[in-house]
Structure formats: structure tokens, C-alpha cells
Specification:
By secondary structure, the protein is mainly β. It has a single domain, classed as Alpha carbonic anhydrase (Carbonic Anhydrase II, Roll), CATH 3.10.200. The protein is 9% helix and 34% strand. It is built from four helices and 20 strands. It has helices at residues 16-24, 66-69, 75-78, 255-263; strands at 5-6, 27-29, 48-49, 52-53, 86-87, 93-94, 102-105, 108-114, 119-123, 128-132, 135-145, 151-152, 155-156, 159-166, 172-181, 206-214, 225-232, 240-247, 249-253, 285-288. The strands form three sheets. It has a 15-stranded mixed sheet that branches. Strands 5-12-13 form a three-stranded mixed sheet, with no helix packed on it. The longest helix has 9 residues, at 16-24. The chain is globular and about 45 Å long. InterPro entries: Alpha_CA_prokaryot-like, CA_dom, CA_dom_sf, Carbonic_anhydrase_a-class.
């Protein structure tokens, strides 16, 4: 697969008060970090309809039915720029105006959150930023999907890590890293992240675990190629106009690490990948570092 390199084996505005009040009732473990970060609430995976949260699933109330669960979710079925997508090796445009993904991440405090349907890591004050197109995007949160949501030539990978960023003007950019099985991923290998499965939560409960320091070095390795396209969030409300960057080198993750991430989730959500969505004429751009794209 020429377009994707494999790594060698080596070591939103919803109703704020109602949302926060409802989330306080859903904790399966007390936490000092009960107040979520002020990310645009479009990043939430639950919404408010008639004062109640509307849950979604991957088997019951699965992706094909998300758009019918709530008016807030209608874009999941009516949108024309939905994510994830399948990237075809012979169906992209090389854009010589693109530049390297400059990532200036820093070690930071965070909150590890088991929502029962997802494992995510939110940074208390952000964890540095990514610079692209003359704009800075602050790293706000990470979340894992098993198996991967994006595919390449219809091949699905064992895991996908999505790094969610937002700019000062509210634009969202997501950096995606694909993984297949091999040696342990050094990011998950951190001691502070080995608490992923400390508490089991059902889909209507939530655990918050403080992380004193998240070391971000493993997230900012220089990469010579990536794909870019305009899409959406991959969970309800499936908001569009999200810029996606899919790294072109597949990393390694151990079988035990994948099992660790899955083990804390409700059975229905252990395979939490939304199926790929139609391109509907969208263009996938590809960046390759060369003399035309100097680093």
C-alpha cells in the first residue's frame, strides 16, 4: 500500500447548564474534575432534547438510525460531508500548497474520561497547538476508536486515535493516527494512562480520572505525508465543516493495549467505529514532503 507507510516494529452551543447538570448524575466514580473543559460543546457525544440526554449506540440505535434519534442529530443522516471515509490510493489530489503539520504540543494535566461508550482524554488548559494554513489550533482532547473509523483501500485498522483541536474562531481540526497490531504504543504505555480500565461504566455512567502529566512527545513525531479532507464529527451530532488530517504512516499498538481500551467499555461500544460515509464529490488532498513541499 504505497499511500500508507507502516511503522517498523520498535519500542458546542448546546444548553450548558442542562448538560453539566445531567452529566453530574451520570458519574460512576466521584471526581474532582467534574466540570468538563470549555471545548465547543459540539464535541460532546450526548445532546439535550426536551431537557433529556439522547443516547446512541453502535448496535442498538446504531449509526444508520442516529439521524432519527433526535432533531439535534439530523445531520447524521442528512449531511453531505460526513466522516469517516474510505481513502482510495488512486483517488486523491497532491496539493503542493500544503505544508507539514507543525505540532507544538506540550506536556499537560488532563482528565481521563470513561463515558461508557468512549475513552477520551481532555486537557485542562489545552496541550499546545497545531499550526496549519496560518492558523493555530489548540489541542483539546483525544479519543480512541476500535477498530479504526477511517479505512484505506477499504482496509480497516485495529485502532484509531483522534486528536481534536479548535481555533480561537471555533473551527475544528482533527488529526487522525491509524494503528495496526505490533509493539506497544509509547503514548498508551504511560503509567498515567494505564488506569483506562480502572472502573467499568455502563453507557449512562461516567468516570473521571485525573492525569497529573500527559507526555505528548509521542504525538508530535515529524511525518512526511498525510491526507486532508473536509468532513464531520464521527459521533452525534455529526457536525460538519471539520477539517481532517489523516497521517500516512500506520503506527503500532499491542494487542493488550487494544484490549485495555475496550475492557472498560460497555459491550455494545467495544467496537465503536462508525461505518465509512459517501464522499459526495469531496476532494481528498495529499501532502508529501519533497522539494515542492519543503519542511
Amino acid at each position: 500500500m504505497e499511500a500508507i507507510l507502516r511503522e517498523e516494529q520498535s519500542p458546542l452551543h448546546l444548553r450548558d447548564r442542562e448538560i453539566e447538570k445531567a452529566r453530574q448524575k451520570r458519574k460512576c466514580m466521584p471526581s474532582r474534575f467534574s466540570q468538563l473543559l470549555g471545548i465547543v460543546h459540539v464535541l460532546l457525544s450526548y445532546t439535550v432534547a426536551d431537557g433529556k440526554f439522547v443516547s446512541f449506540g453502535y448496535t442498538r440505535d446504531g449509526p444508520a438510525n442516529w439521524g432519527n434519534l433526535s432533531p439535534d442529530y439530523k445531520t447524521c443522516s442528512s449531511g453531505t460531508q460526513q466522516s469517516p471515509i474510505n481513502i482510495m490510493e488512486d483517488d486523491f489530489v497532491i496539493n503542493t500548497k500544503l505544508r507539514d503539520l507543525n505540532r507544538f504540543y506540550v506536556d499537560a494535566k488532563g482528565t481521563l474520561i470513561n463515558t461508557g461508550f468512549n475513552i477520551m482524554l481532555k486537557f485542562d488548559q489545552g496541550a499546545g497547538f497545531m499550526s496549519q494554513g496560518g492558523k493555530n489550533y489548540t489541542l483539546k482532547q483525544l479519543q480512541w476508536h476500535t477498530p479504526s473509523e477511517h479505512t484505506v483501500d477499504k482496509q480497516q485498522f485495529d485502532m484509531e486515535l483522534q486528536l481534536m483541536h479548535s481555533s480561537d474562531d471555533g473551527n475544528i481540526a482533527i488529526l487522525s493516527i491509524l494503528y495496526d497490531l505490533g509493539n506497544p504504543d509509547p503514548f498508551i504505555y504511560q503509567d498515567s494512562l494505564n488506569n483506562l480500565s480502572r472502573e467499568y461504566c455502563s453507557e449512562d455512567e461516567e468516570t473521571h480520572l485525573p492525569v497529573d502529566i500527559v507526555r505528548t512527545k509521542a504525538l508530535k513525531r515529524h511525518k512526511v505525508r498525510y491526507f486532508k479532507y473536509i468532513g464531520s464529527l464521527t459521533t452525534p451530532p455529526c457536525t460538519e465543516n471539520v477539517t481532517w488530517y489523516i497521517l500516512g504512516k500506520v503506527r503500532k499498538v499491542s494487542k493488550n493495549q487494544v484490549a485495555l481500551i475496550k475492557s472498560a467499555l460497555n459491550r455494545e461500544f467495544q467496537n465503536n467505529a462508525r461505518p465509512t460515509q459517501p464522499l459526495n464529490g469531496r476532494i481528498i488532498e495529499r501532502y508529501i514532503e519533497s522539494k515542492f513541499n519543503p519542511h
